[in-house]
């Protein structure tokens, strides 16, 4: 149902055209050049996408008036930007939030000369125009059309050092970007940048450091790694419900071994010598994943070959649904057990750098370095071969996949901006208005002068009388077209009472003819803009 006054729209053909810029197959593009034209406000451009005129609220002026930036990519086969002349009389000021928009997909998107692609690797994405913000309250983030709570992405973006490394995924965005992907299942994260603290959202705090473990400049990423001397060095965390193996899990790190002749344990989680899990490099250079429950080996998966004195990515991944446990070296599966189920629940400390066997001679103390250590539970992170990570591990263990579409909208505070007159919403009755209210009452009067009254309805009806003086032909035309479209008093419509400084809306119809009086015109006497009128009409409240 139509609404007055917003439905009484003006025709933009009443304004002079400066020039038109056309585009085709716009796809995900949001910014369009107006060259050779420049504009001051959005009202000076009439945008038509595939034949449909677009509201001025869907785009903004950018680059000092040389371009238009759309809140949402128009994705039009045919896009027309018509620059028109707006006389001062037809300018209006609107208060609204400024919205900036950026969309990412498996096609390249460039922001501030940096390119982003959703490819299962990239996890850091710039905000629109790479602008800094202090709070997620001003962001609306969606993935494939589904709104994301602020807990489902990370702001400021989590970064690795240096600021710019391989590819754009490592771009140091800080408050000008977000990191997004699956992160809630990361149970432990250690990057050893400046301490031994857990960086996961589980926040296990600082590790207990035993022996002479130090932060070493011999590292895979960032500033440092953890260095172990092969004697009594280890770091540990108290047992936690997050360190579990009865669901899907993935434990991975970069390890560098300095003693090729001895077995070295990367990590272990143990109750006693008959109940433990461990990931080790054996003396024969193979990687071993061993799980022992109640004195029996539930899993003993061995494979691959690791050279000494070089950082190697090592991972063990278990898929509870399939029962498959796989060992990976630099992203390549080197061995697997296709059918295994774990029920073990170790109660001792989670240790990195040894396994705390009863006999000191079998503790397989690590001599070497560990960097970028991550433990993820309840998620299948590695199920097939993958590229060796080019960046340090983050809380996000599964970045967005290539079939995802990420949209980030940034809302600023309310601002006043110029626009063009678009409907009679922008022109209130300038000579005032009158309102009357009555109930439907039937009166019966006898010959003796007695009255008997019957109330047909307890709902009153209002009548309105509106008058606009000295409006141009542009406004007159908008009112006339709305009146004609309603067939005069035949069709009802919604009347927005804010137009006469009241609250709410009612159902109404025109009551009687549309009164139009010509007041004067300038010498040209041909343009809608140069002829002036007084227009008045009555409205009656109805209950359809």
3D architecture notes:
By secondary structure, the chain is an all-beta fold. The protein has 3 domains: 3-103 and 410-420, no CATH class; 187-388, Jelly Rolls (Sandwich); 427-541, no CATH class. Helix content is 2%, strand content 44%. It contains 1 helix and 41 strands. Strands 17, 19, 20, 22, 27, 28, 29 and 31 form an 8-stranded antiparallel sheet that branches. The longest helix has 13 residues, at 473-485. It is elongated.
What's the quick description here?
The protein is an all-beta fold and 544 residues long.
Report how far the terminal alpha carbons are from each other: 12 Å
- Low confidence ranges: 160-170
| Beta-strand percent range | 35-45%
Round the mean pLDDT to the nearest integer and report it: 89
Q: How many discrete structural domains?
A: 3
CATH topology category name of the largest domain: Jelly Rolls
Class per helix and strand makeup: mainly beta
- Counted beta strands: 41
Topology:
Layout lengths: L2 E2 L12 E8 L6 E3 L11 E5 L2 E2 L5 E4 L4 E4 L7 E7 L6 E14 L4 E3 L2 E3 L7 E3 L12 E5 L2 E3 L4 E2 L22 E6 L3 E5 L17 E3 L3 E3 L8 E5 L4 E4 L11 E9 L6 E9 L2 E7 L5 E7 L2 E8 L8 E8 L4 E6 L2 E6 L12 E3 L14 E11 L20 E2 L6 E15 L12 E6 L2 E5 L5 E5 L5 E12 H13 L7 E4 L8 E6 L4 E7 L9 E11 L3
Parallel strand pairs: 1-38
Antiparallel strand pairs: 2-8, 3-7, 4-5, 4-8, 6-7, 9-33, 10-11, 12-16, 13-14, 13-33, 15-16, 16-32, 17-31, 18-21, 19-20, 20-31, 21-30, 22-27, 22-31, 23-24, 23-30, 24-25, 25-26, 27-28, 28-29, 34-37, 35-36, 37-41, 38-39, 39-41, 40-41
